[in-house]
Task: structure prediction
Amino acid sequence: MMPPYMFSFGLKKEMSSFLYGLIGVALAGFIVGWPATVTIVYLAGYTLWLLRRMDAIVHWLSEGGRANKAPPTTGLTNDMVQLIHREKKYSRKQKNRYRNTLAQFNSLAADLPDATVVLDKSFEIRWSNAAALELLNIHPDRDKGQRIDNLVRNPDFREFLHNGTDQDELEMQGTGSSAERIIAIRKVPTGKRMMVLIAADITQRVQVREMRKAFVGDVSHELRTPLTVIRGYLEMLQENESLDPQVSEALRQISAQSDRMRGIVEDLLQLSKLEGNPMADNEGDTLNVSAMIRSMVSTLHEANESDQFELALDESLAILGSEREIYSACQNLLTNAVRYTDPGTLISVSWQTNDAGEAVYKVADDGPGIEARHLSRLSERFYRVDSGRSRDDGGTGLGLAIVKHAAQRHGGQLSIESTPGSGSIFSITFPRSRCISMPQAINQ
Result:
């Protein structure tokens, strides 16, 4: 910040010169007998002289205000020239500081391993780094001022650019020399309606993910046969009424663990089919979700008569999708609400459209709730808030992972809200593109 400037000395000098001149002129006027006339002439002359000095300063400033060409000044106008000198010197220092900071930022950003592109409100490229050339085929100099959607011609990218939210991440094939790579792109809004696109090479991450899916699928398939054999022999042994009670109890426990293992295998197989395998918007059957929910609630109520269910269902709302996957997702949320709350808990189930026209399946309870530190990890495989209770209740730890991936496969999203002591809300939101009104569904 520039230090304050004091005008007192220049003003005193200017006033002293003016007053001494005025007194001298007034005395001369009395001597010659025209004091008023001489005084007016002096004031007019002094004013013209002051204006001339001001004009000289303006002319000097218009030619660049170089210090060695400053006009001769005195008094107050001298202070003005000195202040201008100081301001220009301070401005030069600030510009040099900003220039150096910008140069450092550009140098750091240019060396970032992730592609970085700055866009204006019209999606025109304002700046890009070297990695953008490698991953997106965007040249830092050649493509400046070009619309990025004219350079990256990918329908998914265009949709993401214009309609995707800031929390979305787009996975797509690279362009140009990076066509064999997989890149992930995110949007970061900045000031003045500008945007920064960040693209990272995730080829290795995707390969590892696919290898894991293949491994889980293969292992699960291989486990099905021995589990079936074990289950068959257990049933034969359990039919033998002559067995010792201790042996019978041991067989019962082995059978229960065998059933649990079979459930884990089936869930792993389902997950391997769901993950990273999105459906097209027009793919699937027309599903009457309201009827599906009523059937689930009826079955659960018969098995758990103490539980209370409150339904708010839009009977006219249907969606396009896989019946087996949607049924599994909806049933998992309902079953969890019954399993992890005390008997007699009120469970509210709704199937409605929100303000954005999206279909929302919501299961809310007034149970004990979940601590905030667990919420972000609930949909991870085998993650349990209370591992002991989950195993006792027969859970595999895969239910919410299945719900999340089933929702994502249909273009939807799982969201979880919970407060300890105030219950939990689990919601699946499906996009408008999958919503169908029942009269329309009947006519198809």
